[in-house]
From TrEMBL:
One of its GO terms (molecular function) is hydrolase activity. The lineage of its organism: Bacteria, Pseudomonadati, Bacteroidota, Flavobacteriia, Flavobacteriales. Keywords: Hydrolase, Signal. This is alpha-L-rhamnosidase. Residues 362-462 form the Alpha-L-rhamnosidase concanavalin-like domain. It holds the Pfam family Bac_rhamnosid_C. It comes from Winogradskyella litoriviva. Residues 814-885 form the Alpha-L-rhamnosidase C-terminal domain. InterPro entries: 6-hairpin_glycosidase_sf, 6hp_glycosidase-like_sf, Alpha_rhamnosid, Bac_rhamnosid6H, Bac_rhamnosid_C, Bac_rhamnosid_N, Ig-like_fold, Rhamnosid_concanavalin. Residues 1-27 form the signal peptide. It catalyses: Hydrolysis of terminal non-reducing alpha-L-rhamnose residues in alpha-L-rhamnosides. The keyword Chloroplast does not apply. Residues 469-812 form the Alpha-L-rhamnosidase six-hairpin glycosidase domain. Its EC number is 3.2.1.40. Residues 183-350 form the Bacterial alpha-L-rhamnosidase N-terminal domain.
Length: 923
């Protein structure tokens, strides 16, 4: 018989069961945050990858130490989620992985929209609520998706030549009217150009993007943009209008010998796809029905040289229905080239990011100079009173010469000047569109001189690829903080679609060596993973058949040779960026390129000693031979990078589980290292046969190329070289980033601090003492005593020496990845005089990590934040005979942390996620 008491138990059991079930389906933990796909895209449209990866973060809470499982669902409609995922149901996966999880569902196609959610289980097996629904929509993934044709006017036919004999293409205005018979429920504009474009529909700008589609290896790949233009399309009559200029594709680039035909006139490719209210589809494409002309207001536009805008030629309403284009010309039409891939842009577009207002004005004789007090990159926005018919001339300079005139010699042949011709009396507003400048000073002339210039006449519009800051660094030392600011401004100035050497002269190219040294620092300061992943695709595309990676990417030299230390960007950046993201897919993408680059090293060496061409230790100070390439032997440099690239390739092979290749490249590294040691180092560990320089020792030690018995001596010789230089660096582009690494690893922190805090030439603070607000190309680009460096290759915005930023945040503040992607974080600050405090924070793939220390009365205070789903090794400098305090109490092992090592003068702890404060006594 069923007893009442049994019934009671059954009822309890049911309640309990339902609790478990509801707990599991609804979840008790807060849902995951920061959902992104692939290299950090949030709800993108026109996405490039049909096989994306998924990432999320666990919210910071006492309950979330780590993830034990996840569940991802993806569907074609939001209301199918989470229970009826028709595209992918990952099911519950037991895994700590919360980043870069590859999509495993039905194949996805161009234009497809995907909705997705995720939930996770924490370390105790408690589940979270489902996350908010996120989504992505694919762009046109294949050339065959395009029905449109390349269109444009033949602007090359007059063959007017400009500076350095380059064909000037007058900017084009292209338009088309079309009629729709019903309402639109959804509209996408797919668009790109050979050149740079700006598009409007019915008088409205489609986006605030600048310089689209950006700079890629145009002979291999042109990126396309996707815009949701649903709200711009009207039922009935519509008009689309495109402005088109030369940009990187058909404009002037330093050498002008590109692998793509840069003499052809700019062209546009546009495809407007619409879904109508009755469910039918309409498509408008660029084709022979479009019309164009070149007699619009923009008469000239070149990246290096600037713009000429004649307001008298403005055509009001030309992108609306209310315009008559009967005098316009029918466009020429070209087919899509099967060998040039059209792919959705895989990183962010350039945008207006920051506005700077002038701090000072001087004016004299109708010429006004505005000082923004910050060297920047972008364009000016001018609001100026003018007289009809007058020409406003806008000049730029990064610095003034001592006599107050504009220093423009370092722009070399870049004219870098904009002109505006007024059509009426009164205030005009103008912002150049298809050019950019590197400047701190703006000079105006040609304005209405009856008015007194005021600061609001000029705004500095800072433009760069649309990314956000990712980390912060600050300290008790003003000049170190200025250095950090200069590094960040160097980054902003040189991340305008590609990583450039400089942003102002007739160059602005993707110099591989500069990128190689600055990559890690950029990853700390800004959210630039997608920026790098995109550029690395260009590097792969630019790689030549023999494995050579061109000097600049995209290649604008076309001389088919690589330079050691520059082409090694192909091995160094994949590894260093992988360490900061943990995205194995990035390594998979780049592994072939890495092997091919090592193969090129092999071809360029004889008995493992390199003969590769090299820019060497570029711009090393005090070169004995007066050469920009410095004194370090190019053979020594080439051989060192050969070994190093082989070693990195072995590491990547290991991570990818390719054991045979791992063994092969490890062996190669050892062989080349041995050859290097035998050739360039004597028995005592001293450099032989070639010039003995700081950089030769730095390369040998940083890349681990010497046998153990010689290492210690080599270090002594390095210290001797530094001492002989009065404790100053004597390093150029390649050696400088290795100084901090080697001195730190060999325990010479005091010396590294000395070098970093040196005030005299050559040093980082030297340029700051001369007024630098960005990193300079040369240690002595300018000095108060001697004025500008006499060389005209003298950029005042060149990020290479900003590579020291990595050491600042990894070692001064102390945040470094111990395992790829900061899954294990090393917090190991290295306090030293003259600093009394420093702190850094960083947004890692798992969340925010920070380390903040100060010294007071001989005590060391450290506050750390460790994000969920990571662990940290925290190393606290201390007099070990005194106690360590944690959150105000004497430290004892607990569930959040354990003392794992009692090394010399430090407490070393293994720490779980959370926020903690420590206090130790310093020795
Ligand atoms: C200069 C560039 C760049 C450097 C090369 C070798 O023209 O500015 O910084 O990498 O030369």
């Amino acid at each position: 018989m069923f007893k009442k008491s049994n019934f009671k138990y059954l009822a309890y059991a049911l309640v309990f069961l339902s609790l478990i079930i509801s707990c599991d389906s609804k979840g008790s933990l807060e849902s995951a945050t920061d959902l992104t796909i692939s290299e950090g895209f949030k709800n993108p449209i026109g996405f490039y990858d049909a096989n994306p990866t998924f990432s999320w973060k666990l919210p910071v809470s006492e309950s979330n130490k780590s993830q034990s499982a996840y569940h991802i669902v993806a569907a074609s409609k939001p209301d199918l989620l989470p229970d009826n995922a028709d595209l992918w149901d990952s099911e519950k996966q037991t895994s700590e992985q919360s980043t870069w999880i590859t999509y495993g569902g039905k194949p996805l196609e161009s234009r497809q929209k995907v909705y997705w959610q995720v939930k996770y289980w924490n370390q105790n097996g408690d589940s979270s609520k489902w996350s908010e629904t996120n989504h992505f929509e694919l762009g046109l993934l294949n050339n065959s998706d395009w029905k449109a044709k390349w269109i444009g006017l033949d602007t090359a036919k007059d063959s007017i030549r400009g500076r350095e004999n380059v064909i000037i293409h007058k900017p084009q205005y292209l338009r088309k009217g079309f009629e729709l018979s019903s309402d639109v429920t959804s509209a996408r504009l797919y668009i790109t150009s050979k050149g740079v474009f700006d598009v409007s529909i019915n008088g409205e700008n489609v986006s605030d993007d600048a310089m689209s589609p950006g700079f890629t290896t145009y002979d291999k790949r042109i990126e396309t943009l996707t815009y949701d233009v649903t709200n711009l399309i009207e039922s009935g009559q519509n008009t689309i209008g495109v402005e088109l200029a030369s940009g990187w594709h058909s404009g002037r680039l330093l050498w002008g010998t590109t692998p793509w035909d840069n003499t052809i006139s700019p062209k546009v490719l546009a495809q407007l796809e619409m879904t109508m209210s009755d469910g039918s589809k309409e498509i408008i494409v660029s084709d022979v029905s479009w019309k164009g002309m070149t007699n619009g207001p923009l008469q000239f536009a070149e990246i290096y040289d600037g713009e000429i805008y004649n307001a008298n030629l403005e055509m009001p309403n030309w992108t609306t229905n209310n315009f008559d284009d009967k005098n316009w010309t029918t466009v020429e039409v070209g087919a899509i080239d099967a060998n040039v891939k059209l792919e959705p842009k895989r990183h962010t577009t350039v945008k207006d990011k920051i506005k700077l207002v002038p701090q000072d004005i001087t004016s004299n004789d109708g010429v006004a100079v505005f000082d923004l007090k910050q060297n920047m990159v972008g364009v000016p926005l001018v609001n100026v009173p003018m007289k009809k018919g007058d020409t406003l001339k806008i000049r730029f300079a990064e610095m003034l010469s001592p006599d107050g005139t504009f220093y423009t010699k370092n722009y070399r042949s870049a004219h870098s000047t904009d002109y505006y011709i007024a059509a009426k009396d009164g205030d005009i507003e103008y912002q150049p569109k298809f050019t950019f400048h590197g400047f701190r000073f703006v000079e105006l002339s040609g304005f209405d001189t009856s008015e007194t210039p005021t600061k609001d006449w000029v705004t500095g519009i800072v433009q760069y690829s649309d990314f956000e800051d990712n980390g912060t660094f600050t300290s008790s030392h003003d000049k170190l903080n200025q250095l950090q600011s200069n590094i960040v401004w160097g980054l902003r100035g040189n991340f305008l679609d590609i990583p450039t050497d400089c942003p102002q002269r007739n160059e602005r190219l993707g110099w591989t060596g500069d990128a190689q040294v600055f990559g890690p620092t950029s990853m700390f300061n800004a959210d630039v993973y997608k920026f790098w992943a995109s550029w690395l695709q260009s590097v792969r595309e630019a790689q030549l058949d023999d494995g050579a990676i061109p000097w600049t990417v995209p290649d604008s030299r076309g001389n088919k040779i690589g330079s050691s230390g520059w082409g090694d960007v192909g091995t160094i950046i994949p590894w260093k960026i992988y360490m900061r993201t943990g995205d194995v897919g990035f390594l998979e993408d780049n592994f072939e390129m890495m092997k091919n680059w090592v193969g090129y090293h092999q071809k360029k060496s004889n008995k493992h000693i390199s003969n590769m061409m090299s820019f060497s230790d570029w711009l090393q100070p005090f070169p004995e031979n007066g050469d920009t390439r410095g004194d370090t032997s190019s053979k020594l440099i080439g051989t060192a990078f050969y070994a190093h690239s082989a070693k990195l390739t072995a590491k990547v092979a290991k991570t990818l589980g390719k054991t045979e290749e791992q063994a092969k490249y490890e062996e190669l590294y050892k062989t080349v290292a041995k050859a290097f040691e035998n050739k360039f180092f004597d028995e005592t560990g001293k450099v032989k046969e070639v010039a003995e320089t700081q950089t030769s020792y730095l390369l040998a030690l940083a890349f681990d190329l010497l046998s153990d018995d010689k290492k210690a001596n080599a270090k002594k010789f390095l210290l001797k070289k530094i001492a002989e230089a009065d404790n100053h660096l004597r390093t150029g582009f390649l050696g400088t980033p290795l100084l901090s690494e080697v001195l730190d690893e060999t325990g010479e922190i005091d010396l590294m601090y000395k070098l970093l805090f040196n005030e005299t030439y050559p040093s980082w603070f030297y340029s700051i003492n001369q007024g630098a607000t960005t990193i300079w190309e040369r240690w002595n680009s300018y000095s108060k005593e001697e004025g500008f460096n006499p060389m005209n290759m003298n950029s005042l915005n060149h990020y290479a020496y900003g590579a020291i930023g990595q050491w600042m945040y990894e070692r001064i503040a102390g945040i470094a990845p111990l395992e790829a992607g900061y899954k294990i974080i090393k917090i190991a600050p290295q306090p030293n005089e003259p600093l009394t405090s420093a702190s850094a924070s960083l947004s890692t793939p798992y969340g925010k990590v920070s380390s903040s220390w100060k010294i007071k009365d001989g005590k060391f205070f450290l506050e750390v934040v460790i994000p969920p789903n990571t662990t940290a090794k925290v190393i606290i400098p201390a007099d070990r005979s005194e106690v360590l305090e944690m959150d105000g109490k004497t430290f004892e092992d607990n569930s959040n942390m354990k003392l794992i090592n009692t090394g010399k003068d430090v407490f070393e702890l293994e720490v779980q996620p959370g926020t903690y404060t420590f206090k130790s006594k310093l020795k």
